[in-house]
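Many introductory courses stop at the sequence. We go one step further.
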Amino acid sequence: MTSSPTPGSAHLDTAFSPARLRVSGDWTLAHYTALKHLSEKLRGQYDANTSIDLNGLGALDTAGASLLVELLGSERLGKTAEHPDCTLSTADRALLQTVYCSLSDFCVPIKEPEISVSVQLLTRIGRAVDKVWTDTMQLLGFVGLILEVIARGLLRPKRWRITPMIAHIEQTGLDAAPIVALLTFLVGAVVAFLGATVLASFGATIFTVDLVGFSFLREFGVLLTAILMAGRTASAFTAQIGSMKANEEIDAIRTLGLDPIELLVVPRVLALLVALPMLTFLAMLSGIVGGGVVCAVSLDISPAMFLSLLQSDIGIQHFLVGLVKAPIFAFLIAAIGCLEGFKVSGSAESVGAHTTSSVVQSIFVVIVLDAVAALFFMEMGW
């Protein structure tokens, strides 16, 4: 027959000197509210010299043990429970020890101070500037590595990988020719429409021919082609090399004693160096043809007159200015695409992130260099 539960209690016995705090009854969750009030009432009525008597303690659970720790303090309760005169059971002692150790180790998490919006903005700007600087240094180092491998390859023609280079020329050049021709044809038509609309108010629609010729030979032909290659080819290079990096094929190539730069990067770079100037030439022709079609349909400028005006007003130097930028753009687009592929960490998410990064970086570099080149040629009078 089990005894009925006795509500827990604690009272200060002043018959002893020093006074003694006697704890008795069941300190369990069922009596938690009453025991909480009792603990609050007793708090401050005893001092460090008051002895503790736990021999009358009945049932004990975690809730009661936590109240005892709050009432007596973890260090004091631990000494009392471990005292030889204490008749607590081993289970109750272990429970008390676990609870007061947990409460002693627990600390309220310190809330981090809020950072002002201005500091956060400056922090993000600083991180962005640092990332741009780091990426620029990595790109310059990678460009130097590519040039070193190409220079070493000039002395050893047998190591040239002609077959992969031809395959990449087909992928980056021949397969891209239709989209480049269509895009530049349409842009040439749009430029001619805009030029005719603006120049008509000045009675100078004939100069639409010069507008189309100058814009495509110097800027639009190479710029549109480079942007298309940045979106089409740089992303393909990053995805191809990134997938190999994720599958540990790059490590296998190094294990075989082969150079990944010579094996994977140089054929792609050389292929784009060949393909982009040819695509640029195609883009110039397509853009001029698109402008010529609009001039023939809307401005009654015959093809023969269109070609005659081009020949008389536009010198060969404008064609050379546009074409000389193509190899530089090609080299940087291929280098950025391959470098981002080598940065892949090993997951599909990383492949996607670096593919996007290669496209963004390539387009940014192409536009910046084109603007710098335009200013340079303008100052030089070319």
